[in-house]
Amino acid sequence: MCDTIVALKNATKNNSVIFGKNSDREPIEPHIIVHLPFKKHPEGSKVKCTYIEIDQVSKTYECILFKPSWIWGAEMGVNEYGVVIGNEAIFTKEKQNNKALLGMDILRLALERSENAFDAVDVCIEMIEKYGQGGNCGYKKSLHYHNSYLIVDFNEAYVLESADKVWVVKKIEDFYSISNSISIKDDYNFSSFNKEDKLNKLIKEQVKTEKWNQGDRIRAVISKVTKDTRIPQIQLSRASEEMLKRLFEMEVPEIYDGTVVIKSAARDPGERSKIAVASNEKDVDPVGACVGVKGSRVQNVIKELRGEKIDIIQWSQEPSIFAANALSPARVTQVQITDIEKRKMKVIVPEDQLSLAIGKKGQNVRLAAQLVGWDIDIVSEEEIKKEISMKMGAMMVEGKAVPLSALGVVSPTQAEELKRRNIADIETLAKLTIDDLADILDVSMDEAQKILDAAKSVIAAKEEISSKKEESKAETEQ
Hints:
With 478 residues, the chain is α+β, with helices and mostly antiparallel strands.
């Protein structure tokens, strides 16, 4: 028999996590310990598993694996984030696939792609549902089976049991063990049959970074009460926007008495939140009221949410102003409403603010869009300038006149002065030196440089378009 065990912090004397596994593979089968470094992969890459090839991700994490030498996957392993997984064979009546992912392949994929135990569960489920599981696992003899997994990190653990594409997951509260048989009965947390409902109960109302033990006192909002059993079930939430609103209501008297109103809120629980506030009285600053003296009020909320970052935003009835505020801490240059019916807008930011406006993994713009209720497309000033230059270059290629004032950095008065000096087109302007242009327009060297850069950008765009047309014409003739 093959066995895997785990004991979490609340089940050990010294608050450590204990994980153990043995193996009952064939006696003559060679096993190896393999170190896999962190690695980035080109877009569109594939990875060849034991029997099939699947899509690769952009990066894979560092792992140490214990595996049969001839199998791509592993029977057990650990990654750089401390995620540990052990795999067990289970035998069911479900049909076996000839060529699919082995359970050991799924284990390795989960370690390479996960930063915590729950993410590893998610990867395993995705692989099972997308590619299925199956193939000969025997070294000298034929051996086909389905799989169970014990998935652990420093804070939590799960057991995942599967048969073909059917699976169930149970969250472990203290200690657990699995072997070569199904251990989960009807006490699972979520499954392939009712994934969404169970997943909501287990995860969506709980902040991933928060870990609680029996007997801990916590603050939470009641999100749902059900009476589908003899005993009513009360569902609590610490991950909802409502939790954030109630905390501010408790800390800010102006919100409690209605002077300040929370218009909307958006959360990435455990990481970052945005809350939009407005005042019903002109002499009350809604943002200042929520921040408090030396940040005391917002710090109390942050402390309760275990360090979750909070942006307090000034609400505005004007969507463009509201969106610019919501993208804080990024600085916004301009907001353009592109489709008022579909609630879409384009936000232009300086080049050095682009990554800040988008945020890590798109977090800042995603929360801002949720807060405002509009789709937000962020572009840099450089992209806009390039787009304008390409349009003007295309006009010049077609022989159309492009006025100097169309550059955007040349005012009508400056265009008239240049025309008086026989500089009436962009090509002539681009040939000037910075000193000459500064003298003609009586502007600073920096402003003269901006004008010349804009002119040269249009000329470069014109030459690029002309070159492409020539190449296309040559190919057609050939």
